[in-house]
Amino acid sequence: MHVPVPALDPNRSVSLAARLGDPPRTMPVPAWPRPDKELPVVNLEVAWVRFSTINHRTKAEQIRERRKSGRDDLFARSPLEKEAQDAQYHILRQQNGFAELKEDLKARGQQEPAIVTADGVLINGNRRSAAMRSLFVDDDVRSARYVRCLVLPSDATAEELVDLETELQVAKDFKQDYSWINEALLIEELYERENKNFKRVAERVHRTVSDVRAYYDKIQQVHQLVALSKGTREYVDFIPNESAFDELAKHIKNKTEAEAQNVKDVYFIGTLTGVEYRNLRHLRRPDAAALVLEEIRNDSRLEAVLDEATNSSGAEKRDDDDLLDAFIDDEPRDSEPLSGLLQLVAATDKEATIKLGDGSPIEANQLFSGLRRSITNAATEAKEDTRDRKEITAPLERADAAIGEIGRMIQALPRARRYDDWDEAAFASKVEHLEKLLLKAKGRS
Q: Which of 175, 55, 59 lies closest to 115 in space, CA to CA?
């Protein structure tokens, strides 16, 4: 599918073209998808270049800014004008490592050229250009006034720009500049563009198919939680929770519908309330919801919230069925009481107060801390139960392994006895040792 690139600004295009030499100095860019890899080089003022508002590195942050401003078209209506550019500059300045990047640029200068469209929109080098602009404007570092850029052809398409960004920034070093959320959002976009073919996406980003599929699965979980939150949670809020989403996505993939939903509801509530994923991992089991519900009902305040949430949801179908019912069948499931609680927790602001049916309120932070404690307690119980189960089954599992090894020994014995240097006495000693161990296992030693 061809997606046209936003129309170039003719005035800026003319201005940039006038700065190129005749003929212009060029540099090769192997990542540029066209056969002709040579691109013109030019120095542009950092205050003149424009930040890309379709930069995938900042996609989740842009979603947050659009919601905060109440403007869905904040970055799309006039992407080169002051409002959108200021918002994008603010996002870039707030990213982790920005101060360190400024210090590096101040000490060593610009090491690699940025890449811009024919009207000066940065496709690669947004963070570096933002850091140089801050050095020049805020810190009066005169050497940061100009940014060296490579200029793309005026007919570059949106697909080519995404491919270039993917190759330059994503495939080489995702983790340096991309949060896992933005990485996953880009993979999701590429997946749709590549006719839902994970193999082709993996080739684009130079990763394995399993890696790409894992990112896709994780972002689907985040989509669901963000939708459930009804604006109280942002994609960027879940950046610290990659391990939890990773473990959840892998666990539910091949589980029954009931177990998948049980674990999913527990993981979602746990993630929203700040339970460490190291604890949540002990609840990857069919009775996860039952264990958590038992702990919740041991606390009268939490039980009141649970009842309120359950009564509020009642027998009505959730508005988010299309997002959350992928694993639900028509049979009752253990985690059903958690469904209403999950909706309540997801949509509750951390500073809110929740009114219960009897009129008594509970602060959101009290609810979250209580649920965090209950889920952690359930995880501890599950961990101990798993350990006990392992201790019970360990002798049987080891016996099975020993039986298998003895069977293979018997099969190999005739072949070994054909050789002249076979040591029958040594073998008889081993068999005698095995007999003594078996007597000990029977309690007869």
A: 55
State pLDDT tens for residues 169-183.
655 544 456 789 999
- The tokens describing 441, both together, are 């296992």
Find out whether 141 and 111 touch, Cβ atoms under 8 Å. no
Instruction: Report the C-alpha gap between 290 and 283 in whole angstroms.
Output: 10
Q: Are 222 and 181 in contact (CB under 8 A)?
A: yes
What are the angstrom distances between the C-alpha of 185 and each of 180, 212, 216?
9, 11, 8
Q: At a CB cut-off of 8 Å and minimum separation 6, what does 130 contact?
A: 51, 89, 92, 93, 98
Question: β-pairing, 146-151 with 114-116?
Answer: parallel
Beta carbons of 348 and 364 less than 8 angstroms apart: yes
**CA–CA dist 342, 375 (Å, integer):** 13
Angle of helix 198-205 versus helix 209-229 axis, rounded to 10: 100
DSSP code, position 327: T
pLDDT given at position 325:
52
C-alpha 262/C-alpha 279 separation (Å) is 16
Distance CA 443, CA 445 (A): 6
Q: What is the pLDDT of residue 229?
A: 93
Q: How far apart, in whole angstroms, are the C-alpha atoms of residue 302 and residue 358?
A: 14
pLDDT value of residue 329: 46
pLDDT tens-digit profile of 82-137?
Answer: 999 999 999 999 988 899 999 999 999 999 899 999 999 999 899 999 999 999 99
* Angle (CA) 127 130 135, round 5°: 125
Write out the two tokens for 432.
Answer: 């005698």
Instruction: State the first-to-last Cα distance of the chain, in angstroms, to the nearest integer.
Output: 76
Phi and psi, residue 362, nearest 5°: -140, 130
- Are 302 and 269 a contacting pair, CB within 8 Å? no
pLDDT digits (tens, 9 = 90+) for 184-225: 999 999 999 899 999 999 988 888 999 999 999 999 999 999
| Rounded distance between C-alpha atoms, residue 162 and residue 200, angstroms | 14
Q: Please report how many Cα atoms fall inside a 13 Å half-sphere around the Cα of residue 243, on the Cβ side.
A: 9
| Mean pLDDT for the stretch of residues 354-376 | 89
If you search the block for the tokens 């940061």, which residue do you land on? 144
Domain parsing of the chain, residue ranges: 10-156
Please list the helix, strand and coil fractions of the chain in percent, rounded to the nearest 5, in that order.
60, 5, 30
- Residue 362: enclosing H or E segment and its boundaries? strand 361-363
